[in-house]
TrEMBL record:
<dbReference type="InterPro" id="IPR036661">
    <property type="entry name" value="Luciferase-like_sf"/>
</dbReference>
<keyword id="KW-0285">Flavoprotein</keyword>
<keyword id="KW-0503">Monooxygenase</keyword>
<dbReference type="InterPro" id="IPR050172">
    <property type="entry name" value="SsuD_RutA_monooxygenase"/>
</dbReference>
<protein>
    <submittedName>
        <fullName>TIGR03619 family F420-dependent LLM class oxidoreductase</fullName>
        <ecNumber>1.-.-.-</ecNumber>
    </submittedName>
</protein>
<keyword id="KW-0288">FMN</keyword>
<dbReference type="InterPro" id="IPR019921">
    <property type="entry name" value="Lucif-like_OxRdtase_Rv2161c"/>
</dbReference>
<dbReference type="InterPro" id="IPR011251">
    <property type="entry name" value="Luciferase-like_dom"/>
</dbReference>
<keyword id="KW-0560">Oxidoreductase</keyword>
<feature type="domain" description="Luciferase-like">
    <location>
        <begin position="21"/>
        <end position="211"/>
    </location>
</feature>
<dbReference type="Pfam" id="PF00296">
    <property type="entry name" value="Bac_luciferase"/>
</dbReference>
<dbReference type="GO" id="GO:0016491">
    <property type="term" value="F:oxidoreductase activity"/>
</dbReference>
């Protein structure tokens, strides 16, 4: 089994927008990622971040499809990953239009990482029912599947109804859907509806993120084993990508040998994608650290 890596585009670094939140910054980092052998670049999604959350460790985010479109325009092969896109924040047809547009314009390089979400104040600010977020995600997945199939979308949703919406052009390749979350419900949704599952490291904030604890490799291995057992139970035979945000497990404070050991164990557990977010005082340092990581852990492109 091989492991692919995705490099974060640090557009949340709004304390120094000239270094991180410009078209040139996105282009420089995306091009460096492609050249170094990263398989994808990724961004996250927070259209209405709450000030209390921001003041206690939260972060800003550009619109994921706008940010990734700039990365797409500056590159040719690197994949474009939403890690993660909260589908419930938007009308499902607006979400489908953004996905269709970027998939067409990037020549089929989009990967949709999505999840139900956990920030109750952000849902409230956007006028979305937080308690219904799982059903809203399912609704968005239903609409997306119909819209990208070329069918006319006739759908009665929780807050909308359409007798027939037609999206054109249809992407030649459909973007894979990776569904995030650590709960059993999230795993079941990923295994039954997606091409991948995106668990994440809850180290230090499992309660705040409203999901099951996965903060050790033992817990990750147990969760993957459960996902595989559920796949067997429902008769799934297609391989399941697993994209794990390892966080502190691969922090720069760890030795090279320790990080190699972690990566080997992730591969053995079945992880197929690993997002990387190197720190740096400026754009050049982020790129330098991303290149150093690639030289040590990623095979030459």
């Amino acid at each position: 089994m091989t492991l692919s890596f995705s490099l974060e585009l640090p557009t949340h670094r709004v304390e120094d927008p000239a270094e991180f939140v410009t078209a040139g910054a996105i282009a420089d980092i995306a091009q460096a990622a492609e050249y170094a052998g990263y398989a994808a670049v990724h961004v996250t999604d927070h259209p209405a971040p709450d000030t209390k959350w921001l003041d206690h460790g939260g972060h800003h985010a550009l619109d994921p499809f706008v940010a990734l479109s700039f990365a797409a325009a500056a590159t040719t092969t690197v994949k474009l990953l939403t890690n993660v896109y909260i589908a419930a924040y938007r009308n499902p047809l607006l979400g489908a239009k953004s996905i269709q547009s970027l998939q067409v314009l990037s020549d089929g390089r989009l990967i949709i990482g999505t999840a139900a979400g956990y920030l109750k104040p952000e849902f409230r600010s956007l006028g979305v029912d937080f308690d219904n977020r799982g059903a809203l995600l399912d609704e968005a997945l239903d609409v997306l599947a119909q819209a990208l199939s070329g069918e006319d979308v006739a759908y009665t949703g929780s807050t909308f109804q359409t007798r027939g919406v037609r999206l054109r052009p249809i992407p030649e390749v459909l973007p894979p859907i990776w569904i995030g979350g650590n709960s059993k419900r999230a795993v079941r949704r990923a295994v039954s509806r997606g091409q991948g599952w995106a668990p994440f490291n809850t180290f230090g904030y499992a309660t705040a993120s409203r999901t099951a604890e996965i903060s050790t490799l033992d817990e990750l291995e147990a969760a993957i084993a459960w996902a595989r057992s559920y796949a067997s139970e429902i008769g799934r035979i297609e391989p399941l990508d697993i994209c794990f945000s390892a966080g502190n497990m691969l922090h720069d404070s760890k030795s090279t040998d320790e990080r190699h050991a972690v990566i080997e164990r992730l591969i053995s557990a079945g992880v197929t994608w690993l997002p990387i977010a190197p720190e740096g005082r400026d754009r050049s340092e982020v790129i330098e650290r991303a290149q150093a990581f690639a030289k040590e852990f990623i095979a030459s492109p």
